[in-house]
Design brief:
Layout lengths: L2 H12 L21 H6 L2 E5 L5 E8 L26 H13 L5 E5 L6 H18 L5 E5 L6 H10 L2 E3 L7 H7 L5 H18 L12 E8 L6 H14 L4 E6 L16 H16 L21 H9 L5 E2 L5 H4 L7 H13 L5 H6 L4 H4 L3 E3 L2 E2 L1 H4 L4
Parallel strand pairs: 2-3, 3-4, 4-5, 5-6, 6-7, 8-9
Antiparallel strand pairs: 1-2, 9-10
Helix pairs in contact: 3-4, 4-5, 5-7, 8-9
Bound molecules: iron/sulfur cluster.
The site of iron/sulfur cluster (SF4) has 9 residues, from loops.
């Protein structure tokens, strides 16, 4: 099999891995369908970087061979499907060509585990080294940290990559045991995330790629271990505060044929959406866990935006005065995000905001904010039951 054939298999398989980079398509056609240029482009997908830049990202495994047996995973040992493996120099050379042709502007590299986490991490690191040193690749690189990797390997990954990730998959030891009985939550998964933060705190930024610390993300299989949203968000909140997690990704569980969980029902994708909304409220909007509208089963309601649900409980009787509120208060109002709050604060320097149309002019979704705001003591038409 040539390198493109290997890439076709591995990048297609990677689309099964719930993950991180948004907008990754599940479409991966066969190589023969395309001209050489189209064929290269078939393996990359649009993605948005942490700084907002949009790039074409190649997302692939170095190897789909794996010796572990996580219950939800299509790559688990013993499952019958066609596996493929790149050598580090083979992948680095291929990616460099794709990059130079303009087909791929960034890469996210993960792997199944073969020969232990340490040995597998060595291969990922060797690939990254070849890319950065031999091919002088300066673009975006996201490297996965393998379960059981050593601290020195984590440090080296941080020196080479723009982003590193450790997939926790479940929110705690007990829940992980239901998904991946041979992964050790504290030692193999959480500890590397803590190391990343320890290293960031103790090593100056100039020692890292491009003089910047890499960001850190993780991922959970939402609903895979019958965990509650509260458990997932408690761990996410802890990670935000203690290891400066850039983002938690939630991937709604869906059963994979020929795995121990193949008969477990798929989780509603709306749950994934609500978890994202709640995690952003915790990370960026000053919400605490106690503010979130958990049900008696400790889950978020699927039929309500959590910010809206909070506002219905706390703001409907006590609307916020748009011309006085500080940023912390403004961003609690549905329809007003971080940029919208800044726009309100700037506009107030020039004069009072008189009504909903003033919010609309600032790009705010005024209809959503209407039940929860006052303009110098005046209620909005919506609060008065009037047409508007
Ligand atoms: S370690 Fe587990 S989750 Fe990762 S590829 Fe292997 S079986 Fe899948």
């Amino acid at each position: 099999m040539d390198s493109i054939g290997t890439l076709q298999i591995l990048s297609t398989q990677m689309t099964f891995e719930p993950d991180g980079e948004p907008h990754v398509s599940r479409f991966a056609p066969t190589p023969d369908c395309f001209s050489p240029k189209e064929r290269d482009q078939a393996f990359v997908h649009p993605a948005q970087l942490p700084n907002g830049q949009k790039i074409m990202l190649l997302k692939t495994l170095l190897s789909s061979a794996c010796e572990r047996d996580c219950f939800y995973c299509p790559f688990r040992a013993g499952r019958d499907f066609r596996r493929a493996t790149f050598k580090p120099d083979e992948f680095a050379g291929l990616f460099s060509k794709l990059n130079q042709s303009g087909a791929a502007e960034g890469v996210f590299l993960s792997s199944g585990i073969a020969g232990g986490g340490i040995r597998t991490q060595d291969k990922l690191l060797a690939t990254a080294e070849i890319l950065r040193k031999k091919y002088q690749y300066r673009g975006y690189l996201h490297l996965k940290i393998m379960p059981g990797a050593e601290k020195d390997q984590v440090y080296r990954a941080m020196q080479l990559a723009d982003r590193v990730s450790v997939n926790l998959e479940a929110p705690n030891t007990e829940r992980l045991a239901r998904l991946a009985p041979h992964k050790i939550f504290m030692e193999e998964l959480l500890r590397p995330l803590k190391w990343v933060e320890e290293i960031r705190r103790s090593v100056p930024a100039y020692k890292f790629w491009n003089g910047r610390y890499p960001s850190t993300v993780t991922q959970f299989v939402a609903g895979g271990s019958d965990e509650s949203d509260m458990e997932l968000l408690t761990t996410t909140n802890w990670l935000n505060k203690n290891v400066r997690l850039k983002r938690a990704y939630f991937s709604a569980f869906h059963p994979i044929r020929d795995t121990p969980l193949e008969n477990k029902p798929a989780i509603d994708p709306m749950r994934e959406h609500r978890l994202y909304q709640a995690s952003f409220l915790l990370r960026d909007y000053g919400f605490d866990l106690e503010d979130l509208p958990f049900t008696s089963a400790s889950n978020l309601p699927l039929n309500a935006d959590p910010k809206q649900a909070w506002a219905q409980m706390y703001l409907i009787e006590k609307p916020i005065e748009i011309n006085i509120a500080d940023k912390r208060e403004l961003i609690r109002i549905p329809g007003i995000g971080l940029k919208g709050a800044d726009a309100i604060l700037n506009a107030r320097r020039l004069g009072k905001l008189r009504d909903l149309s003033a919010l609309k002019k600032l790009g705010i979704i005024a209809e959503r904010a209407a039940p929860y705001v006052l303009f110098d003591g005046r209620k909005t038409p919506q609060q008065l039951g009037l047409p508007w």
